[in-house]
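Sample pair:
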Amino acid sequence: MKIVFTGGGTGGHFYPLIAIAESLHDLVAEQKLLPPQLYYLADKPYDEEALFANDIVFLKAPAGKVRRYFSLSNVTDVFVTAWGLVTSFFILLKLYPDVIISKGGYASVPTVLAASLLRIPIIVHESDAKPGRANLLGAKHAVRIAVAFESAIEGFPAKLRNRVAKVGIPVRKELLNLPAKADAVAALGLDPTVPTVFIVGGSSGSLRINETALDALPNLVSFANVIHQTGKDHFAAVSATGYVIIEKGGHENRYHPYPYLNVESMRNAAAAADVIITRAGTGSITEISLWGVPSILIPIPEAISHDQRTNAYAYAHTGAAVVLEEANLSPHVLASEAQRISTDLAVASRMREAAKGFGNPLAGRLIAEEALRIGLSHERKTD
């Protein structure tokens, strides 16, 4: 059996595919099946180590973006996508896989269109509360459509909704099982007598979150440890400024900046956290929900990303998070909300329970099971 993954541009598209691959490996071992050959077809490999670790072969096909603002690149990228379609068509014709799993994003478009021409079964996964354009296109040709938000179902045409199932967002196994809180606090060198605020703006960091966190830092360290993932490019300036800011007020030992957190450090930070301050990408929201940690979401403004604001409010509606819009973001409000959530046991308990009710730790396995079922059926038809 051959399975092709596609999607891309961001970790939010890429890493759920890795989580599905992990579940596929588990399932074939449990059911004593021959392991499928796995491929990732996109314009870039994104994380070559993750592909190698999961026995996934990268296959390159160009893909053009469609930007939401005027750019001459929107014209030239039409031709890039057309060439990507031709490239994908011949790659898939040669491989003739048994199923395609598409995560959406611009990189998925050539592969999904080529697969539809070759009548290869397609599974589409939509992470956002409102379906993106690539997945709306892919859904027309899909045999199954998986979503994370209930509201996403209504975003697909009525005639396709019998193919849709809410399964959640697949998360890599290494991020699911956290250490004990006391062990995590000790490993990170935190003060065990106060709560912990974990601030993260994504792997590349968020300048606006960093700036606001620095302004709020004296208030934050007065009641909590602060774990601050700044982003690699911002680390030197942010960490130096942070230490200068809190030097006069004391509690220097409560500020813990990091340029980037590897998986082990991320697990410790998540286990130690009493509240997480972050952007509202669906990958982040899902991980936070599975960790059962209250959160403060600061979505990227709608002019830049149409997804995050919708995702943030859809998740906050469960009671697991509060949303602070960038336009209303201030150091005082950020510190005040972090203190209210992390020090009020009743509030924290309600938010933790709401968070645990959102994510689905079996999402990757459910999609993997469906992929195997469809793949085996397709394999028999083509023998």
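The chain has two domains: 2-172+361-382, 177-356.
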